[in-house]
Amino acid sequence: MGAHCLPPLVFLGALLVLPQLLLASTTRYYTFNVTMQKVTRLCKTRAIPTVNGKFPGPKILTREGDRVVVKVVNNIKQNVTIHWHGVRQLRTGWSDGPAYITQCPIQTGQSYVYNFTITGQRGTLFWHAHFSWLRATLYGPIIILPKLGVPYPFPKPYREVPIIFGEWFNVDPEAIIAQALQTGGGPNVSDAYTINGLPGPLYNCSSKAHLTPADTFKLKVQPGKWYLLRLINAALNDELFFSIANHTLTVVDVDASYVKPFDTDVVLVTPGQTTNVLLRAKPDDGSPPATHLMLARPYATGRVGTYDNTTVAAILEYVPAGHIKSRPLFRPTLPVFNDTAFAANYSAKLRSPASPDYPANVPRQAEPPFFFTAGLGTNPCPTYRGRSGPTNDTKFSASVNNVSFNMPTTALLKAHYDGNTASVYTSDFPAVPLVPFNYTGTPPNNTNVSNGTKVVVLSYNTSVEVVLQDTSIQGAESHPLHLHGFDFFVVGQGVGNYDSSQDPANFNLLDPVQRNTVGVPAGGWVAIRFYADNPGVWFMHCHLEVHTSWGLKMAWVVNDGPLPDQKLMPPPSDLPKC
Ligand SMILES: *[C@@H]1O[C@H](CO)[C@@H](O)[C@H](O)[C@H]1NC(C)=O
Ligand SMILES: *[C@@H]1O[C@H](CO)[C@@H](O)[C@H](O)[C@H]1NC(C)=O
Ligand SMILES: *[C@@H]1O[C@H](CO)[C@@H](O)[C@H](O)[C@H]1NC(C)=O
Ligand SMILES: *[C@@H]1O[C@H](CO)[C@@H](O)[C@H](O)[C@H]1NC(C)=O
Ligand SMILES: *[C@@H]1O[C@H](CO)[C@@H](O)[C@H](O)[C@H]1NC(C)=O
Ligand SMILES: *[C@@H]1O[C@H](CO)[C@@H](O)[C@H](O)[C@H]1NC(C)=O
Ligand SMILES: *[C@@H]1O[C@H](CO)[C@@H](O)[C@H](O)[C@H]1NC(C)=O
Ligand SMILES: *[C@@H]1O[C@H](CO)[C@@H](O)[C@H](O)[C@H]1NC(C)=O
Ligand SMILES: *[C@@H]1O[C@H](CO)[C@@H](O)[C@H](O)[C@H]1NC(C)=O
Ligand SMILES: *[C@@H]1O[C@H](CO)[C@@H](O)[C@H](O)[C@H]1NC(C)=O
Ligand SMILES: *[C@@H]1O[C@H](CO)[C@@H](O)[C@H](O)[C@H]1NC(C)=O
Ligand SMILES: *[C@@H]1O[C@H](CO)[C@@H](O)[C@H](O)[C@H]1NC(C)=O
Ligand SMILES: [Cu+2]
Q1: Is there a single domain that holds both residue 265 and residue 133?
Q2: Whole-number Å distance between alpha carbons of 162 and 375
Q3: Contact residues for 445 (Cβ-Cβ < 8 A; gap 6+)
Q4: What is the CATH number of the domain that holds 519?
Q5: Do residues 372 and 303 lie in contact, with contact meaning Cβ atoms separated by under 8 Å?
Q6: Ligand 2 centre and the CA of 111: distance in Å?
Q7: Which listed residue, of 100, 417, 472, 489, carries a Cα 20 to 30 Å from 538's Cα?
C-alpha cells in the first residue's frame, strides 16, 4: 500500500516518528573536573574530592541507545578512576573504570575520556570513583530515559526525583581505611548517612542539638500527583531500609531493568543497587497538610558496633503549604537492623516483566557450574598493631573461594588484550571451593585465607551459572555482590548450604529479576545466570567497600567471539599508563 492510501492521521504519525528515529542516537558530552571542595556537614567543614565542586556530583541524563562521552580531569592529589556502575559497556571495557582491572588510574594532572553507549537498559544507575574509598564523596546519578516515543510501562510521573543515599565521615575516609588495613581490624564507622548529600534533622551538631533545615533534603509534592523516586544506594558499607510515613511505594525498576510492579511500605537497597519507585501523593481531602518523614537506616547482619546504626531523615511536604504553624509530623516504621526474614521476602518479590516488550532471556542450561563461597576469614598478624583484628594476633581478610584477590600493579584488561598476562594474573581461579566445609555451620579450625591475582576465563557467549554461598566463619553476613559488564538473572536463593541435588529444581527460569548487584543472604546462598556475551575483563566484588578492601573480589576474562561485533574494541589512545 502506498503512502497516499494511508489515512491522514497515520501519515502524520509516520512524519512524527521520523525525526525521533533520526534523533535516536544522541551523544551526551560531559566534563568531570575532579577537585577538592570545602563542604560543611554535621557542622564540620572538610575539603572533599568532588566532581565540578558538587556534592553529590552532577547527574548524567541520557536515553537508552545514546552515547555518553565524559572527559575526566584529575585535579586532586590521589589517583582516581570513574566507574559507570551497571552500564553494560558492550565491547568498551576500557571505559568501565575499576582501577587496575580495566585501566590504570588517572594520575594527578592527567585526563581520560570515557566513551560508551547505553544499550538495552532504562531506569537509574550511578557513577562513582573506583579507586580505594574515594567513592565516599565521588558519586552521582545516571538517569536513563526510555527511547524517544517509548512510554514507561507505568503511569507517567509528574516529576522524577533522584534520592541518592551516601555515608558521611567527619574525617578523611582514606585515613580510615588506611588505618584499618594497618591494624588489621574493622574500620571506624561513618558519622552519618545522607540523602542527596544531606544528613537531616535526626543528627546533632557539635555546637547545637539539632541540624537546621538547610541540612535536610525536602521533597515538595502536590496532592494527587505521581512521583518517580530514583533510589540509589551509594553508601560505602551499608545496606539500607527506606520508608516514607503514610505512603506505600510501588517498585517498578531495579538496576535499570523494569520489574513486575509491586507495592511495599519498605524498600531494601544495598550498596550498588538502584530502585525506582512510584509515589502517589495523597489526594487533597481537605485535611490539614502534614509533614511525612522519609527515613533510611541499615539492614545490618554484622556484629553490633561494626556498623553505623544512625538514621538519615528527609522530609516529604505537601504544597501548597498554607500558613499552618505546626503541622503534624509522621514517622515511618522500619524493620529491625537484622531482619533477614524481611530481606528474603523482599528479594523474592522482585520479578522480571518477562513480557513481549521486556522478555527475560534466561540461560536455560548453564555450563560449567561455578560454586563460589563469599565471606570473611583471618590471617596471622604476629605483631600487635594497635586496634587489631578479631584477636590481637590476627587480621581480617576476605575472599571468594578462599582466594583473597591481590590487586595487580597494571590493568588486567590491557594485559589480556596484549596477550601478555604471565606476570599479571593466572587463570586458575577455583570453580568450586578447594576445601569444602559446612559453610554456614561451625567454622573449620583453619580459617586462614590464601591470596592471588586469579581469574576465570570464559569463551564468548558461555551460559554461566554462579551459586554464591555466604560463609559464617566470622559470623553469617549479607554481601551485596556486584558484577561488572553484565546484568544477571537471580534464579534462586535459600538459607543454609546450597544443595546442588535439590535446589536447582526450584530455580525460577521464567521471570527472575535482572540486575547487576545481589545480596548474598546472610547464612544462605543465591544463584545467578548470565550469558558471557561481552568480551573483556570484568570485576566481581562485594559492594561493601570494606570487604573489597579485604579482598572479596575476583575477575572474569571473557574472550572475543568469532564475529567482528563480538570482539573487544582496541584501547583508546589516551588510556592511562601505570
Ligand atoms: C577544574 O577546576 C579547577 C578549580 O575550580 C579550575 O582551576 C580548573 O581550571 C578546572 N579545570 C578544568 C579542565 O575545567
Ligand atoms: C567514541 O567512540 C566512538 C566509537 O568507537 C568513536 O566513533 C568516537 O569518535 C568516540 N568519541 C570520542 C569523543 O572519543
Ligand atoms: C578511629 O577511631 C578511634 C577511636 O575513636 C580513634 O582513636 C582513631 O583516631 C580513629 N581513626 C581515624 C582514622 O580517624
Ligand atoms: C542529640 O542531642 C540530644 C540532646 O543532647 C540527644 O538526646 C540525642 O541523643 C542526640 N542525638 C544523636 C543522634 O546524637
Ligand atoms: C500516618 O501514620 C501514623 C503512624 O506512622 C499514624 O499515626 C497517622 O494516623 C497516619 N496519618 C495519616 C494522615 O494517615
Ligand atoms: C549502635 O552503635 C553504637 C556504637 O557503635 C553501639 O554502642 C550500640 O550498641 C548500637 N546500637 C544498636 C541497637 O545496634
Ligand atoms: C537480631 O539481633 C538481636 C539482638 O542482637 C538478636 O537477639 C536476634 O536474634 C537477631 N535476629 C536475627 C534474625 O539474627
Ligand atoms: C592486645 O594487645 C594489647 C597490647 O599488648 C593489650 O593491651 C591488649 O590487652 C591485648 N588484647 C587482647 C584481646 O588480647
Ligand atoms: C551445618 O551446620 C549447621 C549449623 O550448625 C547444621 O544445622 C547442619 O546440620 C550442618 N550441616 C552438615 C551437613 O553438617
Ligand atoms: C579442630 O580442633 C578441635 C579442637 O582443638 C579438634 O578436636 C578437632 O579434631 C579439630 N578438627 C580438625 C578437622 O582438625
Ligand atoms: C599471600 O599469601 C602468602 C602466603 O601465605 C603470604 O606470605 C603473603 O603475605 C600474602 N600476600 C598478601 C598480599 O596478603
Ligand atoms: C597512582 O598510580 C600510579 C600507577 O599505578 C602509581 O605508580 C602511583 O604510586 C599511584 N599514586 C598514588 C598517590 O597512589
Ligand atoms: Cu561483603
Answers
A1: no
A2: 32
A3: none
A4: 2.60.40.420
A5: no
A6: 16
A7: 472
Ligand 11, atom 8, lies closest to the CA of: 451
Distance CA 231, CA 282 (A): 20
In a domain, 360, yes or no: no
Q: What is the CA radius of gyration of the chain?
A: 24
Note residues around ion ligand 13 (Cβ under 5 angstroms): 479, 542, 544, 547
Q: How far is the CA of 232 from the centre of ligand 5 (A)?
A: 26
441 lines ligand 9 (CB under 6 A): yes
Give the per-residue pLDDT at 338: 95
Per DSSP bridges, beta strands 450-452 and 403-405 are parallel
Is 39 touching ligand 5 by the criterion CB < 6 Å? no
End residue of a domain, out of 145, 175, 206 = 145
Ligand nearest to the CA of 174: 3
Q: Which residue, judged by its Cα, is nearest atom 2 of ligand 6?
A: 305
**Cα distances (angstroms) measured from residue 576 to each of 108, 110, 249, 424:** 11, 8, 44, 17
Which range of residues forms the domain containing residue 139? Answer: 14-145
Tell me the pTM: 0.94
What grid cell was written down for 190? 561513618
Preceding peptide of 320 cis, ω within 30°: yes
Mutate to test the pocket of ligand 3, among 188, 191, 387, 546 (most ligand atoms within 8 A of CB): 188
Examine residue 557 and state whether it is found in any structural domain, yes or no.
Answer: yes
Ligand nearest to the CA of 318: 5
Mean pLDDT of 425-436: 97
450-452 sheet: strands from edge to edge:
450-452, 403-405, 394-400, 369-380, 463-470, 524-531, 488-495, 514-515
Decide if 47 contacts 37 (C-beta within 8 A): yes
Q: Could you read off the pLDDT of 378-421 as tens digits, one per residue?
A: 999 888 887 777 888 899 999 999 999 999 999 999 999 999 99
Residue nearest to atom 2 of ligand 9 (CA): 441
The yes-or-no verdict on residue 320 having pLDDT over 90 is: no
Q: What is the distance in A from the centroid of ligand 2 to the CA of 115?
A: 6
pLDDT at 12 over 50: no
Which amino acid, 247? H
Among 94, 115, 574, the mutation site with the greatest number of ligand 2 atoms within 8 A of its Cβ is: 115
Whether residue 362 is contained in a domain is answered as: no
